[in-house]
Specification:
It is an enzyme of class 2 (transferase). One of its GO terms (molecular function) is ATP binding. Helix content is 52%, strand content 11%. The chain is α+β, with helices and mostly antiparallel strands. The protein folds into three domains: 169 residues, Beta Polymerase, domain 2, CATH 3.30.460; 157 residues, no CATH class; 53 residues, no CATH class. Helix 13 packs across helix 18 and helix 21 packs across helix 22.
């Protein structure tokens, strides 16, 4: 089959610039690569650096993996690595991959592949090939189908991957229909690369993705989740999310996202919820990492990138389509959309096989994202502030960022007022945290003391009493053990069990 239509050849100066970048990036491992190449060549085998490391070298990105491909079979590769003095492992032997580590350099060497795919299960029927060009053709995209033969450092590019890279264009070595039929997950990978590498899709790739989007349902939830996570952690996930939506892939992976594209008519005005959600995600990302608050200085940062925050920002309004109501006078309401959204978030993340702790955290942030708007002009009592802090728990720093990011108004005066008001709330929270250690708040009587005061044994009633004292502590602050015991007796006098 003919290779894809070549992108317009880049200017020779651009090629020279890319080659200089590649040499600089590969410099730390070039000696090791040459040494391995000579070792394999001496035994009559071919060896080449391939795929992501070659692409990233030309892009000037840091080298994270050393992926090599060879004509040698796995047993031969393992023997050569052992003779080289490497510590080896063979966890990927079934797919032709042997790993090795020597002097701090880790490599993975895979035998040339010439796989066929079972179009029902999407699993490759592993078979080994005999040529580098054949191996490159089975790869997902032309920018990943470039290689560097070792030890000569001969650049191999049968599908014009370098021209595509210079044009920042994502295309496939085979036809995209064939490539995506082999593995539909490659469509999600295409969306991820647009976000991760700032590439554009070749028109034929976008068209094939749109036609084949439904085939993604054949891929396991775990593989889909992993690609979605990589996309969300990219520098510009919004670009990739737009690709998912525009091609129909999101309808399979994350249908709640395109559902946010609510029709807006001239009589019932509300924000474009889809665009708002993408903007909130971008603004949340901009707040990750070190930051400061007026009156506080540097505050506890949220790591960058942070999957929990990014998922919550993207999903915070997914309850709106189900709760939209048209009001008299032209208004639109979304009452309790945060609670509905929390339920939808939990359901979708479970379907994608996220970990229980991740599901709990993201769902809680979605549930709490509107809480600040009850703060109004700053008239919350200390009790309300305590509840805000304790309800957020360890998610407080992320809730701060999500709430700030959720302000997408174009009214600068309103935006400044909201930012200032939330800044005031953060200052109040910090003051209460320092004074009352709210991050470890407990009732002023422990379980044993409660049982002694009430003369009851451990059980459900003791649990209720504990919860009441915790609520009392949040409402009243620190009152001391005597006052807490007095309140406990008052509460007990109103319980049906007290007269028994």
């Amino acid at each position: 089959m003919a290779p894809p239509a070549s992108p317009e050849r880049p200017d020779p100066s651009e090629i020279s610039r890319l080659q200089e970048l590649a040499v600089r990036r590969l410099a730390p491992v070039l000696a090791t690569l040459r040494e391995l190449g000579e070792l394999f060549e001496a035994e009559g085998h071919q060896l080449a650096l391939v795929g992501g490391p070659v692409r990233d070298a030309f892009l000037g990105r840091d080298l994270t993996d050393v992926d090599l491909t060879t004509s040698a079979r796995p047993d031969q590769t393992e023997a050569l690595l052992t003779a080289w003095g490497a510590t080896t492992w063979d966890i990927g032997r079934a797919f032709g991959t042997i790993g090795g580590r020597r002097h701090g350099v880790q490599v993975e060497i895979t035998t040339y592949r010439a796989d066929a795919y079972d179009r029902q299960t999407r699993k490759p029927q592993v078979s080994f090939g005999d040529s580098l060009e054949e191996d490159l053709r089975r790869r997902d995209f032309t920018v990943n189908a470039m290689a560097l033969r070792l030890p000569q450092l001969e650049f191999v590019d049968p599908y014009d991957g370098l021209a595509a890279l210079a044009a920042r264009m994502l295309d496939t070595p085979a036809t995209p229909q064939e490539s995506f039929a082999d593995d539909p997950l490659r469509m999600m990978r295409a969306a991820r690369f647009t976000a991760q590498l700032d590439f554009e899709l070749a028109p034929r790739v976008r068209e094939a993705m749109t036609e084949a989007a439904a085939h993604l349902s054949m891929v396991s939830a775990e593989r889909v989740r992993d690609e979605l996570v990589k996309l969300l952690l990219a520098p510009d996930p919004v670009k990739g999310l737009r690709v998912l939506t525009e091609t129909g892939l999101a309808q399979v992976v994350l249908p709640e996202l395109p559902a946010l594209q609510l029709e807006v008519d001239e009589h019932h005005h509300h924000k474009d919820v889809y665009e708002h959600s993408l903007t909130v995600l971008q603004q949340a990302i901009a707040l990750e990492g070190p930051r400061s608050v007026d009156g506080l200085g540097p505050v506890t940062p949220v790591p960058q990138p942070d999957l929990t925050l990014r998922l919550a920002a993207l999903l915070h309004d997914i309850g709106k389509p189900a709760t939209r109501r048209f009001e008299s006078g032209g208004g639109v309401s979304f009452h309790h959309h945060e609670m509905v959204g929390a339920g939808l978030t939990r359901k979708r993340m479970k379907a994608l096989r996220f970990a229980k702790e991740e599901i709990k955290d993201v769902t809680r942030l979605v549930e709490l994202h509107l809480r600040f708007h009850g703060y109004g002009g700053g008239e919350w009592t200390d009790s309300a502030v305590r509840r805000y802090v304790t309800d957020a728990g360890p998610l407080l720093s992320r809730l701060h960022l999500l709430t700030r990011a959720d302000c997408t108004t174009r009214n600068r005066r309103k935006a400044a007022m909201l930012a200032r008001t939330y800044g005031d709330l953060e200052v109040r929270i910090a003051s209460l945290l320092e004074r009352e250690k709210l991050d470890a708040v407990r009732p002023e009587l422990d379980g044993n003391q409660i049982a002694q005061v009430l003369g009851i044994a451990p059980g459900p009633v003791l649990g209720r009493a504990y919860k009441h004292l915790l609520a009392y502590r949040l409402d009243q602050g620190e009152v001391g053990e005597d006052a807490a015991a007095q309140e406990l007796r008052r509460w007990w006098s109103e319980q049906p069990e007290s007269s028994g």
